[in-house]
Specification:
single chain, about 400 residues, alpha/beta, Aspartate Aminotransferase, domain 1, seven-stranded mixed beta sheet, 14 helices, 15 strands, binds pyridoxal-5'-phosphate
Length: about 400
């Protein structure tokens, strides 16, 4: 490996949500934080150097997105996902979550039905509810340790819903949806004129042996019914730089959203976000391939550890993302008891499964984008605490 992912970097005192809000979030400042989706692995040197080089110019005035910024995104999507995108299709948003909210506000009306597929990234719920749209759950099915879409239910729901927010790949259950699954979804979308917002922020975090399929590429008839959201932020650990892309081929749909975003004057963006995004997409392939191997090895280590030491906890092995979805239901604790136990007895800060909606009961989400020693420490803590509970 060219990069040393074993290095532990102290993040405390950097206004880090993960570390410096532990007291606020967990009421315990000492938990080992394995929750919010950013990495404890350092943002790679070539990105830091690009940011520092720009920071060394002493004026940080108004800026715009350069041709080379757009080229870096276009080339990346072509190289990594075989997706040919044109510059005009790319809109800017300060984040994928803001973009989801813009799409809901610009393209649906109060009272419209919007489908989400829980257990899923919880800002999907607020993007619907906070704007007085009607949340419709197409809950994922969980059978034999594997998640799938309930298409029979979706066929019905799509008849009256206006929009579906797809998590592709899926956080927290780690599915990299297969082509046949997305084709079925595409058919439903086209037949019912159901607008699909495909959140592909985890597209580049597909673990070795799996493939990401861009939803918009599944069927040309999807063009007027699909919006893709993508960013370098999750992949290269740049979440604090607030930059993402919204990609829409269809001109009418694009203009609708573009007009809305422009009217809010939030598309100026952040100088350092642009520099970092471009550096990531221009030079990131080697680092990314290595980090994916490292994360996959962390997942494998954790899975073996659980099987050997704490088989009551079942891991849903992810195909994508750096999150693992852990089933603690065998202990028979309520969700409140489980949360309290993990925070105060085990001393680890995880995301409670119930926060991801129906189907999250008894589960916890754990972030493994960290040095191996941190993963080991977290699982040791969990193992010791449950061993005391069991004996
Ligand atoms: C599915 C998904 N979408 C969006 C985000 C966050 O996007 P942003 O920080 O660009 O708003 C996350 C972060 O974990 C995520 O998992």
């Amino acid at each position: 490996m060219t990069y040393n992912f074993d290095k532990i970097t102290d993040r405390a005192g950097t206004a880090s949500v993960k570390y410096d809000l532990r007291q606020f979030i967990f009421k315990n400042p000492d938990v080992l934080p394995m929750w919010v989706a950013d990495m404890d692995l350092e943002t790679p040197d070539f990105i830091r150097e690009a940011v520092v080089a720009r920071a060394n110019h002493p004026i940080y005035g108004y800026t715009f997105r350069s041709e080379s910024y757009y080229e870096s995104i276009i080339n990346w999507l072509q190289k990594r996902h075989n997706w040919k995108v044109e510059k005009d299709w790319i809109l800017f948003s300060p984040g994928v979550v803001p973009a989801l909210n813009f799409a809901v506000l610009a393209l649906t009306n109060p009272g419209d039905e919007i489908i989400v597929q829980p257990p899923v990234y919880f800002p999907f719920f607020t993007a619907v509810k906070e704007h007085n749209r009607h949340l419709v759950y197409n809950q994922l099915q969980f059978k034999g340790g594997k998640y799938s879409i309930n298409f029979d239910q979706l066929e019905q729901q799509a008849q009256t819903a206006r929009m579906l927010i797809l998590c592709n790949p899926h956080n927290p259950v780690g599915r990299a949806w297969k082509k046949d699954e997305l084709s079925r979804l595409a058919d439903i979308s086209i037949k019912n004129n159901l607008l699909v917002i495909s959140d592909e922020i985890h597209a580049d975090l597909v673990l070795p042996g799996n493939t990401h399929h861009v939803f918009a590429e599944i069927d040309p008839d999807l063009d007027s019914n699909t919006i893709t959201m993508h960013a370098a932020s999750k992949t290269f650990n740049l979440a604090g730089l607030a930059s993402s892309s919204v990609i829409i081929k269809d001109e009418t749909l694009r203009e609708q959203l573009k007009t809305y975003i422009s009217s809010l004057h939030v598309d100026m963006g952040n100088l350092f976000g642009f520099v970092a995004t471009q550096a990531a997409f221009e030079g990131g392939e080697v680092w990314l391939d290595e980090v994916l191997d490292y994360i996959a090895a962390n997942v494998e280590w954790a899975n073996v550890f659980l099987k050997q030491n704490l088989p009551q906890v079942k891991m849903v092995v992810p195909e994508a993302t750096y999150m693992v979805w852990l089933d603690f239901s065998e202990f028979g604790l309520t969700d409140d008891e489980l949360k309290e136990f993990l925070i105060n007895k085990a001393g680890v800060g995880l995301n409670a499964g119930v926060d991801f909606g129906p189907g999250g009961e008894g589960f916890m989400r754990m972030n493994l984008a960290c040095p191996r020693k941190t993963v080991e420490a977290a699982f040791e803590k969990i193992n010791v605490a449950f061993s005391e509970l069991l004996f």
